[in-house]
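The protein record quoted in full:
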Amino acid sequence: MKIKYLSTLLFGLFTSLTVSAQQLKEFTLEDLNFGGTNYHNMVHKNRYCTWWGDQLVHLDGDACYIVNKATGKETKLFGKDELNKWIAPTRGIKVHSLLGAKFPYADKSVVVVNNGATIYTVDFKKHKLISDTEIVDGYELLETNYKGGTMALLKDNNLFVRRGDKEWQLSNDGSREIVYGQSVHRDEFGIHKGTYFSNDGSKIAFYRMDQSMVTDYPQVDIPEIDYFNHPETQTCCAKAAPDKYPMTGETSHKVMVGVFDTTTGKTIYLKAGDPTDRYFTNIAWSPDDKTIYMFELNRDQNDCRLVSYDATTGEKNGELYRETDAKYVEPQHPIMFLPWDNSQFVMQSQKDGYNHLYLCTLGKHGSRMAHNTESLEIKQLTSGKWVVMDVLGFNAKRKSIIIASNELSPIQRNFFAVDVKNGKRALMDETGDGWHNGLLSESGQYIYDSYSSPNVPRNIAIVNVDNGKHLSYFRAEDPWKGYNVPEYSCGTVKAADGTTDLYWRMVKPTNFDPKKKYPAIVYVYGGPHAHNVDARWHYSSRSWETYMAQNGYLLFILDNRGSENRGKEFEQVTFRQLGQEEMKDQMKGVEYLKSLSFVDADRIGVHGWSFGGFMTISLMTNYPDVFKVGVAGGPVIDWHWYEVMYGERYMNTPQANPEGYKKTSLLYKAKDLKGKLQIITGYNDATVVPQHCLTFLKACIAAGTQPDFFVYPGEPHNMRGHQSTHLHERISQYFFDYLK
């Protein structure tokens, strides 16, 4: 009797759920794609904040609010309209949003805002404009040191520095071949900019890159045409737009580091010797601004040295540290001095197999710090089979370092306070799960902890580092409430080595029925410095996966060996043979897929972009009987044609590793293509240049195989704006057509 009742209950529940599911809304790509017209309504809400010393300020666009860290209650500090009156009471609106407001002084009521053309410094308690600096036409603002009131600007390819009413022109030979104050070495080695202010803002270190010897890649600029408003009246002539692109094994650029002093108006260059075949990265200043430190790496990228220079003369003080590796060393982080001890700094290295912190102490000879390897004492501060992912800053009161790490799980990111004296760690975030990003207050006493987990789109907590207490400040609602959402799950399979756990994400078709068989799409990246699966909302599922699940496809994503955050051995297994071990691991994922009763083993597709495009074609041609359909975006085809810094790190030069380059080249695999393959690229891709796709097409023509090809004129490596929606419509339709 009970069993009969239970069956009836389950039937009624199933019927209710079915009706409910029918009433739920369906997604479109305009909802899910970041270029879509309704995407802004489909992402979880956030709360944007910044620190004013140890006071948390909520930036609401139209106003700034002080947040009570004990209760979360907000008190208005000032509004946009008020601020504009203080800036110019007799003129119109000057600042349109306060989302970018900065509070550079912990002990002063000063806010810095800008409207894109002018930077305003305002005392919001005295209701008074302190200064305004106009960025006139032709100037590009590179960086601002708010405390020093100093700006680095670019005009006509030349570098300028402005401080107060004074402006200095630091160069006069700037061009597309001689580049000043911008990122160098193709944004590798943790480089994201080209200017580095001293602590007080009176000096600035900057890059000078000579790329006159680098080969031009012949990019073509196709002019924009308004096809809906008299296109016949517009010019249609394409123009040459060459790009300096140093390919593996070829001549690379030369970089120097200059230092400008606003107090003397003079520029010197660090005397680092011949910059040929060397990389300079992770520039840092000493606390007294008298010394500059940077990591210097040979072109083979297996010999890395921390070197110090006199910031006034440019003379080399000495080599502090050297690290070598049989494969490669990859410096990613500048040294960071302890705010309570000018003789100690923290260095990051994965020399023990995992990225960890090392406490370094400079020796002294009399009153002068020594600058040689023997004088540097190094103590490992953190250790274990996990990685330090970021250093948020320091807490001087507790003498601790606040870090983010994946100690609790390879797919999590959590905050810890590390005691500098003994290396002991204390968990700082609210939950001990999920993926946490944060901002540390000036003293290091508080963390603004913004996090998500597989079932939580966004929570924000305020963490008191001193006592470990947490205040729940903001909780975002599920923006997909009312929609028919698929099931997201996560698990592990063993890698091809038989021992290593690899994490996967699965998105099952909407209204999943385990008795049915579904086509499956493997989404892949697989390359260095990236991962796809972590403990964020929906396990970091891309919205396109949800769209495809809604259309009856099962999505499977696996982080193979070679991807990030798993230690040196895990990452370096691909050395000199990119794609080979990665494919073996991906096929272990496919084996798992095939073992599932609801997966149709005859309908498996694959899709990826960039390195993932390389992996897509690699899998399609190495396992032609497994993958029926593939879409490869911006794919690397042959590592000969990739840039020096990235390509040579993992593959060496073509001269040193000819077998590896031949083994990994997809040109030799064009003849093995059997399934339906669509290749897509941005016509002006400066990362994976069009030569890759075009040469593969030539190889396919010679071999008699038939890939499809689509180009986005004027687009770079990734499609921008609404063209991204068009792109994902095209990708989706290809699977709809051929992986039914």
User: Anything to note?
Assistant: Residues 390 and 468 are 20 Å apart (CA to CA).
